[in-house]
Design a protein that fits this description.
57 helices, 1891 residues, alpha+beta, 14% strand
Length: 1891
């Protein structure tokens, strides 16, 4: 029973003490005046009566009513019902407020809280003051309060003849029952009657209509958001203009949270003065009047629900976790069925008659029922996770959160995790966890209805029926008696508030009210307390839980087969069948990723433990430990699946004897897992064990039990701990005092003994075997900070400790040990404190424990010392023998093998990913560091793969990134240190060091690797140390005195040059360039930016000392011998002559001006300059260019005579300045101006050196190319290059249309185009034709015939604002190029894409393509090719081009080299390509050492693959034109690998100057005394080419003077397989000596006389080298020939000679004109015009098939007839290959004389006319079977009479001569006489007409 109302208070308006305009509430009277003992008077009521502040009002408002809620210090809620009415203000009150009246009027106008209904103003100037009647109660009967206060107000207003004191006294003394469903009628003595119904169950909340109203105001989604926000402890704020609605909304939200109780701040109506409460850091549910909305705007973490507007605003920084699916969607749909039942019927053709919707009260209960069902689903089975820690004297219950989440399958779920961590759930556990208590609707639901809920899931109507049933029960709880007697309460008349009240509310007689109260109290004391006994029962537990989602655990579906494998393996281990077990182990370790398999393992191992002990032998012990580690490695710190809990007893049971008296237990080998350092895990384990023991305590059968009761006892054993506790609680009151004491004591000592047991267990698992290896311990968060760890659920995972570097241990063993011991003692003490205080252990016992813990730890440390000592003596397990790698001659081992595991790195091939194949990785082996490479050799850890040797290596010099990692070893699952080494040859070694490799060894490996990667000086690199006793520490310039004087050099220069150039140029077959050596010297650090060495010096001050000090025996002749000189000579680019006798006929000359490297250090010694320019002028010209790299000629077109020049970028005071200020004469010419003048003269000289072909009447610049046709203009940070799309239609009449192969120069969508002005000048707008399909212009001759003589291709940024002058002969083409750092970044991303580094979770081809696109590597290749094709076009059309980009040694080199390669077929031969690289890359100073970071100085700048990018471009061209290159794709890969490997000296150092300084460049011919290793890569290639055709392209069949124009769109580019391929059998195949394994054994007869064994073997794509395992047909045949010749005892012929002979024999089918062009086996079937479009050579699926696919679009020059002829010819040639000479068709035959090709004699031949094949063939004589040539009649245009020429047979008549004219040439024939000549002509004519 309880009082209906505790206090009645009258509050009125009073002046503010500080005199401000605001008033304040004053309590006029309160009854009773003394506080009740059980319930003190709540403070601050006056604030809550007027939440918006006390203010006077100019009009009389109608009375208002609302209920505010106050919460006291004991979390008790007090309901304050407030009825407010207005009375005329007294003069004192008015005086206070006159000055601010106006303001307040405004406030009132703005919708202040009291403008609730139209109010009538009083007399003018009259103000009204509010007065409030307040009832304070602990019961929530709002309607009763409204009626009671209304009655008091009515008595006052209507002036009824009833004593107010009596009514208030009766109200305060009214006693009503709390719950139980009773009905009570009360009367306050004013002729009124009210019926109060109490709810049936006190625990269920009363909501009336508040929930339904909340949904009506906010909608389903918003309410669900608020529901989740309140449950996950977020701040919720309601806004409304109605106080009553605020309290209803808050009440509704609380009702939804049932069965959880909201335990944070709850203020449904917050007064204005307390608004700062909103910035509290704790969660809350608060209501605030909408007038204060502005004040809530700046709250950043508060969810605001606007009830009037129906919106919920969630700030950005707040994340409300949603309900787990499928509960979210199910709840949503059920709610919509309840709120909008017509939704389901809306689409029906014949809707049923409308059913009446539920009443609001009923709907309210239905909505609550939905949420009640939701909680039953969420918390189903929660009672199975309760731990009964104590039963007496009070139950202590803990909830095993991890197990609950694990069994529900919701470990990852944010929502449930937060709910279980919240305070509300903690209250739920302590309140509802009690096993013996009154139960309510929720207990029934969660125990008995969950199966029904699951069954109904997919049947909406059944769900609705269930909801309605639950709603009925909820409704009945609130309204137990439906037929309620009507209330009878007087109300005031209509508009009574407007009538003048007879008087203000009277002051009441306190004495009288007090007397009534006292009397009632006295009467109560006399009466016996009417206590209704609660019905307490055992709370039902319900069925065990099921997962909310039936998730299968991904790949590892727990199939019975997997579990069978686990069981078999364990039984093999315990039966001693170790080999069988070893075979199964990898499969078991894989299976243990699944949860069921881990449980199965724990159960199986339990079976093998007797009396808590199982002694194993060493091998068994190792197997068991391995499997345990594998199980534990996937346990999170929570151990939600109880795996660690199941293994905990086992790790202290399994052991092995190390020696007498020393036993090692399994726990010392499974410590490195995060779960052991998690306090929550230990707490849950402890409470679980305590529960087991407490249950056992009460289940012990009594001693005096007779045998007949044993059966009952066994039934007892099946009861759960909760059942036992419930029974004990029921019996507790009946026990005697002594018995109670005894039980409490027993329980307490049980807990205490468990605490001691756990202190021991924890010390076992936390103290490492070797205290120096306590890394994990020191880094475990749990050990460091228990408090923070207990509050947060997830302690930091291993990932956190991975990042920290492993510091090398100090040598102080003892200090280390003490530290470990101290940490462990602190950890255990904290644990003991927490669990003992929670489970009520006495303080004496607790103190005893604290004393005991250090002793336990110390004892254990001592035991461990012995174990460690003995275990180190154990013979280690037999590990595989280390396989030694094969080394190159001269390569030495620096560090012998360190045992490591090679782990998968994200490339699928080696790990048997989606491509299939065996899992070669992880592999177990060793890593070796040599002077040249880092090498891993080993074998796969999976024994089922077989004995395959896995090799992965890369040159030390290629290392780009080294990173320490911590990884789990694949076998033991221990966490080990590891290294990840990434190389720019696209290899990655991800290694975990074996435990036997100490941290110092690992550190030594890293240091040595670093030392070898970045030697202090270039002489420390492998190319120098190879085979020499050179010490790396020697200073670079040691031999100064040996150098000859500079004068000697220059004297010899001209002499030798003349001699050399005077010699005939040797043909390309015989020419063998001198093998020159490598280079090395770190570049000056500021060389990037310095303008030039001689920037400030006058030419006169350039003394020899500032230039070069050359080595001895170096003369100028060797400078002239250089490759570039030979090339200049081949191109006819001039002679080296003294200035006096200059040959004026030559436009260019070779100038020795830079022979001392004084003008430009990075240029070669001899340069090609215009004939007219003096040497002394070059010094000044060079100043205008970056790095002094002035324009020099590097190539000349043989046909158009246009030249290609290269230079560095311009300084701003150079040409750019010249262009900008062309016509402004300057008063005084400075030095810079004179340089610019020289510069202009120099360019003019270049222009005048070219043949004049331009129209003299003035030149039309390349104008008018509309920018609309230029690719898209994307303002992107990426570089853009010239795009040439939609070229002009081909003009058929062009005389000199160059033959060429077309790719595309159209911009791809991404890369944008050149500035409009540039492209616009490169073609004519007026003659644009449609674009080609693949981006190829219609005709290479699209450029207009009148164009500039010289184009300068420069960087757009450099040439800003340049206005070209029409009088000048040159024109600027500004293009945007990417910078070198962009290349570097792009390459890093490319590396990441091709070799990810960590295995991808779900391999998806799109991932690779996406990361490839992000790298932008192909975009850069596209731009390079595009610019190059542009330059090729300009050169081909007769204009010269100067490429002047960046410093002139990166992108310039790439472009210039590509242009020469595309334009000149010579550079597409092996020798020509070598020459090109030597000339453009080496002589012209590409900074190989700087870009490759070869030395310590370059370490910071990192690796930039400029040369590799060039090779990739060449590879793209090679792919499109496979028949144009003499070298194979392997050659490009070989160079790509070795330009970074530092095996050869070729690609070392940054310029010829540096190479000469080190004396590397030239080598005297007689210097070699003994054969030594190749120092030059070219020499190596030459040697190798003689032995094997690996660098040769069999499809090589060039067409002379062929210009290639590749397609450059990104879609046409392919990823180079150099980046993606690897061979694990032998490592990279580019060190040829290493990859040639032992020859395969020949087939042998089997001993049993059977057939010979087959030599077939499996070839794994990622393991074996496919070109070696399955060579192409031609290589195979050549090998076979060599083998057969060797068998015959002959010296084998060189492959090249054999190949040349074969080609010669095949030539006749392809060409009949006897021209000596080599023609490949394949060329005969490829028509001429098709070849020029690019033939893609594709490898078939097997690798040995070659298929030719041709581009489909026709070339511009071909006509329909041409293609028809070609088709016919190709079929005929194919046909001829399958016919023998004997069976040939010979329609007509005979002897004719035939004139040979140009300058060849006449010869008699036997001719055969074949009408079937449509051919004229000829043979040496009649019986000859080998055809010497074919004339295809399809090509014959005419047959006409001929005339005798020189050398014709003398005796024959003139009329016997006739000519056959074909599309290719004219053939001259002569018959024996006129008649036979006529006959031949007729036969040929008839043959042609037949066709």
């Amino acid at each position: 029973m309880a009082r209906l109302a505790d206090y009645f208070v009258l509050v009125a308006f009073g002046p503010h003490p500080r005199g401000s305009g605001e008033g304040q509430g004053q309590i006029l009277q309160r009854f009773p005046e003394k506080d009740w003992e059980d319930n003190p008077f709540p403070q601050g009521i006056e604030l809550f009566c007027q939440p918006s502040g006390w203010q006077l009002c100019p009009e009389r408002n109608p009375p208002t009513f609302f209920v505010a809620v106050l919460t006291d210090i004991n979390s008790e809620r007090h309901y304050c019902a407030c009825l407010t009415f207005w009375e005329p203000a007294e003069p004192t009150q008015e005086g206070v407020c006159t000055e601010n009246a106006a303001v307040r009027e405004d406030e009132a106008e703005e919708g202040g809280p009291r403008r609730l209904s139209p109010a009538v103003p009083g007399p003018p100037g009259q103000l009204f003051a509010p007065k409030t009647l307040v009832l304070v109660s602990r019961l929530d009967h709002a309607e009763v309060f409204r009626n009671s206060l209304g009655l008091i107000y009515t008595i006052h207003v209507e002036g009824l003849n009833v004593s107010l004191e009596n009514v208030i006294g009766n109200l305060l003394t009214c006693i009503i029952p709390l719950a139980g469903g009773s009905q009570r009628t009360i009367s306050l003595g004013a002729g009124d009657r009210q019926v109060i119904q109490t709810p049936l169950a006190d625990s269920l909340p009363i909501s009336r209509c508040s929930v339904a109203l909340l949904f009506r105001q906010l909608g389903i989604t918003n309410v669900l958001s608020l529901f989740c926000a309140a449950l996950t402890e977020h701040k919720v704020l309601f806004l409304s203009r109605s106080y009553q609605r605020l309290s209803d909304a808050c009440r509704g939200l609380l009702a939804l949270l049932f069965p959880l109780r909201y335990s944070f701040t709850y203020v449904p109506i917050l007064p204005a003065q307390l608004l700062e409460v909103l910035s509290t850091p704790t969660p809350f549910i608060i209501g605030v009047h909408a007038a204060f909305q502005a004040e809530t705007q700046e709250l950043l973490d508060v969810i605001v629900a606007d009830l009037d507007g129906g919106t919920v605003t969630v700030p950005e920084c707040v994340h409300i976790p949603p309900l787990p699916e499928p509960l979210q969607s199910q709840t949503h749909s059920v709610l919509s069925m309840v709120l909008d039942p017509e939704l389901e019927l809306a689409d029906l053709a014949f809707p049923p008659p409308t059913t009446s919707a539920s009443s609001l009260k009923m709907q309210d209960k239905e909505l609550r029922a939905v949420f009640l069902r939701l909680f039953a689903q969420l918390l189903q089975g929660y009672r199975w996770c309760l731990h009964m820690v104590r039963i007496h004297p009070e139950p202590v219950i803990r909830f095993h959160k991890a197990a609950f989440l694990g069994q529900r399958g919701l470990v990852e779920d944010d929502f449930l995790m937060k709910v279980l961590e919240g305070m509300a759930f903690a209250g739920f556990v302590s309140e509802r966890g009690v096993p013996y208590r009154p139960t309510d609707l929720f207990d029934e639901l969660v125990a008995h209805e969950v199966t029904r809920i699951r069954a109904d899931e997919n049947h909406p109507q059944r769900v609705l029926r269930h909801v309605k049933e639950l709603a009925e029960q909820l409704y009945k709880n609130e309204n137990p008696y439906p037929a309620v007697a009507m209330h009878k309460v007087q109300r005031p008349g209509e508009a009574s508030h407007l009538r003048r009240a007879p008087r203000p509310f009277p002051r009441l007689d306190e004495g009288m009210v007090q007397w009534i109260v006292d009397q009632a109290t006295a009467k109560m004391q006399g009466a016996p307390p009417a206590v209704k006994a609660e019905r307490r029962t055992t709370v039902p537990s319900g069925p065990p839980m099921t997962a909310i989602l039936e998730r299968s655990s991904g790949l590892h579906g727990n199939s019975a087969r997997r579990l069978e494998v686990v069981r078999n393996c364990i039984s093999y281990v315990f039966e001693g069948k170790m080999l069988e077990a070893k075979k199964l182990l990898p499969a078991v370790l894989r299976a243990l990723k699944g949860r069921a398999a881990r449980r199965c393992l724990a159960q199986e191992l339990h079976l093998h433990v007797q009396q808590n002990r199982a002694v194993l032998d060493h091998q068994q012990f190792d197997f068991v430990v391995r499997m345990m580690n594998c199980c534990l490695q996937d346990c999170t710190s929570l151990d939600e699946h109880g795996i660690a809990a199941a293994l905990l007893p086992l790790v202290t049971a399994f052991c092995r004897k190390l020696s007498s008296g020393v036993t090692q237990f399994a726990y010392s080998c499974v410590q490195e897992h995060v779960v052991w350092s998690t306090p929550q895990f230990w707490e849950a384990m402890f409470y679980g064990d305590v529960q087991t023991h407490i249950r056992a305590l009460y289940l012990e059968p009594a001693e005096d039990q007779d045998p007949s009761q044993v059966g009952e006892a066994s039934a007892l054993d099946e009861r759960s701990a909760l059942d036992v506790a419930s029974e004990q609680q029921r019996l507790w009151p009946m026990l005697s005092r002594e018995k109670q004491q005894e039980l409490v004591q027993k329980e307490e000592s049980t807990v205490f003994s468990q605490a001691i047991h756990y202190a021991n267990r924890m010390s076992y698992l936390l103290l490492p075997l070797d205290s120096s290896k306590s890394r994990l311990l020191r880094e475990r968060v749990g050990l460091g900070d228990l408090e923070s760890a207990s509050n947060s659920l997830v302690t930091s995972s291993m990932a956190g400790s991975v990042a920290e570097s492993y510091d090398t241990e100090s040598g102080f063993e003892d200090a280390e040990t003490c530290d470990v011991a101290g940490t462990v003692v602190r950890f255990i003490n904290r644990f003991v404190d927490k669990v003992c205080t929670e489970s009520g252990v006495t303080s004496d016992h607790l103190k005893g424990l604290h004393v005991m813990v250090p002793d336990i730890v110390q004892m254990h440390i001592e035991t461990l010392e012995a174990v460690q000592r003995e275990s180190t003596r154990l013979r280690p397990i037999q590990k595989p023998k280390l396989l030694r790698p094969r080394l190159l001659p001269g390569e030495e081992c620096v560090l012998d093998g360190l045992r490591v595991y090679l782990l998968p790195d994200g490339r699928e091939e080696g790990s048997g990913g989606s491509g299939g194949g065996p899992a070669l990785l992880p592999a177990e082996g060793a890593v070796f560091l040599t002077t040249y490479r880092v090498i891993f050799t080993g074998m796969p850890t999976d024994p089922l793969v077989g004995e395959q040797v896995v090799i992965r290596s890369f040159p030390v010099a290629a290392l780009t990134k080294e990173k320490r990692i911590s990884v789990q070893t694949p076998v033991d699952q221990f966490l080990q240190d590891g290294l990840q080494l990434r190389s720019c040859t696209f290899q990655l070694l991800k290694m975990a060091f074996d435990e036997e490799v100490g941290s110092d060894n690992a550190e030594l490996f890293r240091k040595q690797l670093h030392k070898l990667r970045y030697p202090p000086d270039i002489r420390g690199t492998f190319a120098f140390t190879l085979g020499s006793s050179h010490t790396p520490g020697r200073p670079p310039r040691a031999s100064k005195e040996k150098g000859p004087s500079l004068r000697t050099l220059s004297r010899n220069l001209v002499k030798n040059a003349k001699k050399t150039i005077g010699r005939q140029y040797v043909t390309r077959k015989k020419y063998n360039p001198p093998s020159w050596e490598h280079r090395g010297q770190p570049p000056p650090e500021d060389q990037e930016d310095e303008i030039s060495v001689s920037e400030e010096l006058e030419p006169s001050t350039l003394t020899p000392s500032s230039a070069l000090k050359p080595s001895d025996r170096m003369t100028m002749s060797s400078l002239v011998e250089r490759a570039c000189c030979r090339d200049y000579q081949r191109l006819g680019l001039g002679t080296l002559s003294s200035s006096l006798s200059r040959a004026k006929s030559e436009p260019f000359r070779i100038s020795p001006v830079n022979r001392m490297y004084a003008i430009c250090r990075s240029y070669p010694g001899l340069l090609i300059v215009p004939q007219s320019v003096q040497d002394n002028a070059l010094q000044r010209v060079s100043r205008c260019y970056r790095q002094n790299r002035f324009p020099v000629v590097c190539w000349r077109s043989g046909r158009s005579k246009a030249v290609l020049l290269r230079s560095g970028g311009l300084h701003s005071k150079g040409v750019v300045g010249l262009f900008k200020a062309q016509n402004t004469p300057s008063p005084g010419q400075s030095q810079a101006d004179s340089s610019s003048l020289e510069q202009e003269k120099y360019l003019q000289a270049v222009v005048s050196s070219m043949p004049r072909y331009a129209d003299t009447s003035g030149r039309n610049t390349l104008s008018g190319f509309s920018s609309a046709h230029m690719g898209s203009h994307v303002p992107s940070p990426r570089a853009r290059v010239t795009t040439l799309s939609n070229p002009m239609a081909a003009s058929a009449s062009r005389r000199t249309a160059p033959r060429g192969k077309w790719g595309s120069v159209r911009a791809s969508g991404r890369s944008g185009g050149l500035g409009g002005d540039v492209g616009s000048r490169l073609a004519g707008r007026d003659m644009l034709g449609p674009p080609q399909a693949n981006g190829a212009p219609l005709d290479p001759g699209f450029l207009r015939p009148q164009r500039a003589a010289l184009y300068i291709i420069g960087d757009k940024a450099q040439l800003k604002g340049v206005r070209p002058d029409p009088l000048q002969q040159w024109e600027l083409v500004p293009i945007e190029v990417f910078e070198v750092r962009q290349v570097k970044t792009s390459f890093k991303k490319l590396l990441k894409a091709c070799v990810p580094g960590s295995p991808i979770i779900e391999p998806d081809p799109a991932t690779f393509l996406r990361s490839l696109e992000d790298s932008e590597w192909l975009t850069q290749i596209h731009k390079l090719l595009q610019v190059s094709v542009l330059v090729v076009e300009l050169l081909d059309s007769g204009s010269s081009v100067l490429v002047s980009l960046e410093d002139g040694w990166d992108i310039t080199t790439q472009v210039v080299s590509l242009v020469q390669l595309l334009s000149d077929p010579f550079y597409r031969t092996l020798e020509g390509f070598r020459l090109l690289v030597e000339k453009e890359w080496l002589s012209f100073g590409h900074r190989f050492s700087h870009r490759g970071a070869h030395t310590l100085a370059g370490q910071s700048s990192g690796f930039t693959p400029v040369f590799l990018q060039f090779l990739d471009c060449v590879h793209q061209v090679h792919l499109q034109f496979p028949m144009e290159f003499e070298f194979s794709p392997f050659y490009l890969k070989f160079l790509g690998y070795h330009h970074v490997s530092r095996r050869f000296r070729t690609f070392l150092l940054d310029s010829d100057y540096e190479r000469i300084e080190l004396g590397l460049l030239y080598e005297e011919k007689g210097e070699r005394r003994a054969p030594q290793a190749c120092r030059s890569v070219w020499e190596y290639v030459d040697r190798l080419s003689k032995r094997t055709p690996v660098f040769y392209n069999y499809m090589y069949a060039p067409e002379d003077s062929e210009v290639l124009r590749p397609y450059s769109n990104v879609s046409n580019l392919k990823v180079w397989d150099f980046y993606t391929q690897e061979t694990l059998a032998e490592g990279p195949p580019y060190d040829w000596e290493l990859t040639q394994g032992p020859p395969e054994p020949p087939e042998e007869e089997r001993h049993d006389g059977g057939a010979p064994q087959s030599r077939r073997r499996v070839v794994w794509p990622c393991y074996d080298s496919r070109p070696r395992a399955q060579p192409d047909a031609i290589s195979r045949l050549l090998e076979e020939l060599q083998r057969l010749e060797t068998e015959l005892g002959r010296p084998p012929e060189r492959w090249k000679d054999t190949w040349d002979r074969v080609k010669a024999a095949q030539r006749l089918e392809g060409r009949t004109d006897g021209r000596g062009t080599p023609s490949s086996l394949l060329v005969s079937s490829v028509p001429h015009h098709r070849r020029s479009l690019g033939v893609y050579l594709q490898e078939g699926p097997v690798g040995s098939t070659l298929s030719l696919s041709l581009d489909s679009d026709q070339s511009s020059s071909s006509t329909a007839s041409g293609s028809r002829q070609a088709a016919r010819r190709s079929t005929s040639t194919l046909y001829s290959q399958f016919q023998t000479a004997e069976s040939e068709n010979r329609s007509y035959e005979g002897t004719l004389y035939k004139k040979g090709a140009f300058m060849k004699p006449w010869k008699a031949r036997w001719f055969v006319l074949d009408k079937t094949k449509h051919q004229l063939r000829y043979y040496d004589h009649r019986v000859d079977t080998e055809c010497k040539g074919v004339i295809d009649l399809a090509e014959v245009e005419a047959v006409a009479p001929g005339t005798p020429t020189m050398g014709a047979p003398k005796t024959v008549d003139e009329k016997a001569f006739f000519d056959v004219k074909t599309t290719r040439r004219v053939y001259n024939f002569c018959a024996q006489d006129v008649a036979s000549a006529q006959q031949w002509v007729d036969q040929i004519q008839s043959c042609l007409s037949d066709a």
